[in-house]
Amino acid sequence: MMALFMVLWMTQQSDKVKKSVERAFRNPGVGITQESAGIISGKGAEAAKSQSMQDKKGTASSNEVEVLRRLSEDLLKALQSDPDTENLKTVKIEMTSEGLMINVFDNNKKPVFERDSAVLTEYGRWVFSTLTWEVSRYRSFPVELSGHTERGRPNIREDYGAWELTADRANTVRRLLLKSGLHSEQIKKVAGHADTVTLPNTLPDEERNRRVTVLLRLVPQSGRKEHTVHD
Known about the structure:
There is one protein chain. Helix 4 packs antiparallel against helix 5 (about 120-135). The protein is about 35% helix and about 15% strand. With about 230 residues, the protein is of the alpha/beta class. A six-stranded mixed sheet has the order 1-2-3-6-4-5. The protein has a single domain, classed as CATH 3.30.1330.60. The chain has helices at about 1-10, 15-25, 45-55, 60-80, 120-135, 160-180; strands at about 40, 90-95, 100-105, 145-150, 185-190, 210-215.
């Protein structure tokens, strides 16, 4: 089934995606480092955060934490297959008390969205399609999507500002994730937060706050299922 899924998935992708996947298969042993090109793994505090998650009663088991850690490594390997991510801080993957948080940044030098638009660039489509390829294998984790932007962004139109744009961008990502293979029952929340959620150690008006966050949420004990990887 996984082979059939991959064939169907590949037929819908651009030439850039197909070439990146080909490189990944030709070089399966590509190394993963914290300073990976264009990707920030957030490993520095991962061990402490993992322990914190395990210590929270009814929030996470060691098995769940291990599954998410394995997924983060798979995501890093898949994203590293594209040399265009070199020296760009496009994606940050980190373990949090809520689950696995994936921030995709809309950088001016390498945007994932067209300017002042909810339309994805070719690069943006590649990034989110690649994320979906891995995330869709772990069906038991609920997925939440949220759009964010920096403070001081002028309205695009009188009736269309930061709230509308961030909500539309989150919904654009939702549609692409579903088209790329994510199961509809996994998506539990889609929201736009405008400029109300500033990243830690970042000023509210910094470009880095312009992002879409994909959260794989940890499931409380009462609602847990066995985590199965679907190949």
